[in-house]
Amino acid sequence: MERKKTKLLKNTDVLVIGAGNAAMCSALAARENGADVKVLEAASIEDRGGNSTYTAGAMRVVFNSIDDLKKIMDLSEEEILSTDFGTYTFENYFDDMSRVTQFKADPDMVETLVSKSHETLVWMRQKGVRFQPSYGRQAFKVQEKFKFWGGLAVEAWGGGPGLVDGLHQAALKEGINVKYGVRAVTLLRDDKTAAVIGVRCNNNGIYEDFYAKAVILACGGFESNAEWRTRYLGPGWDLAKVRGTRHNMGDGIKMALDVGAMPYGNWSGCHSVAWDQNAPEFGDLSVGDGFQKHSYPFSVMINANGKRFLDEGADFRNYTYAKYGRIILEQPGQFAWQVFDSKVKHLQRDEYRIKQVTKIQAQSLNELAEKMDGVEAGAFIKTINEFNSAVQRNIKFDPNIKDGKSTNSLRIPKSNWANTIDKPPFEAFQVTCGITFTFGGLKVDGQGRVLNVSGDPIEGLFAAGELLGGLFYFNYPGGTGLTSGAVFGKIAGSNAGSLKSA
Fold it and tell me: Is the pTM of the predicted complex or chain greater than 0.90?
């Protein structure tokens, strides 16, 4: 049967594919250059924003003083007096990116991300996006004063939904049109020059052609595509839960590869976390990121064999959480239990207290062992006893620093925050792997232009957000994804918008 096609005769200057953080920053930056901008979003208006909507809204940014933070967010005198924000320098950020990616991250991309992080968030604030201190996630109270840890002090007001709403409100004010329920499927090219001149889209079975001087792909990675996950990440990844949107099927990457784009980055890697065992297959906006379980540095994690399988205290949560999902997926049955005693209950993040949680509680470890579905009870008790005996008791526990409170003589140590598990009531939370986004994608130059396999720019084609390759390998510093989306989105939009008069 011949498919229907409607060709839209009205051209635009810039077409943005996607409607999340990177996409809308691209759109706003292109509009600043006077370009007419149209945004095409595969999701409905209720489910717009891609993975950005499902995040907590944390954004990692350089700040050398409280004055730098005040340029990004409103801070009351009370907040300033009661908080030790510390600093997070260019060197800190660059070193963290290099260290957690095992020095494989593209140094030019890292330098761009880090050097432009502060000015980009200032720009977003000028557009109407609101930011606040990330108290609930990144600070503990010590002697009546909040102290931030891990270099991450800023989050969008209202989390991911607040960030997306703020960007869309800004776009509305600037006359940027967003068309929903339209999935881009093919890039259109000029027959003579091979330049990208538009996009063919599927709109409920009707194929529409949109034409533009520049196309910006900002429609996510391939984490929602179970077949691609298994193909590129490896066997078993079809069993992972998807933390966010169901719409990130790798469409933008595929379209670009089909016109000769260079694959780039860590195609076998992804951002994956400890996620509630009984969470749905895809993200649920009514819960958001509440299914994550990220207080594990203060727990011990136990697999089906009743054994620990990783160092829960290897580093701050910011620098380990994005790689531990993979390790959980590798365990028997693809699950683990996070076990806490009452000494650290007050340190648990808010996500441990939501209604939709897989949790058990007991007054004794033996009772807890019997309630832990799928776990060898005897092996669990032995593991806890060995762990308790190995904890160093002469080192003070401090959640704000890597305190060196560790274990001795265990095959798998706990390097920091090692407390005995001995004070009832005891709690355990069952988790599996939740995939956030994939690390492999497209190669771009310093202007956000997509490069072909020869290393030359594909005329008219730009990219930003999750579908960029080269920035993340193996692991990820918390809060970097939204910042990189905004930074590279703004770059792509500014340069695409400059083509309006070409």
Answer: yes
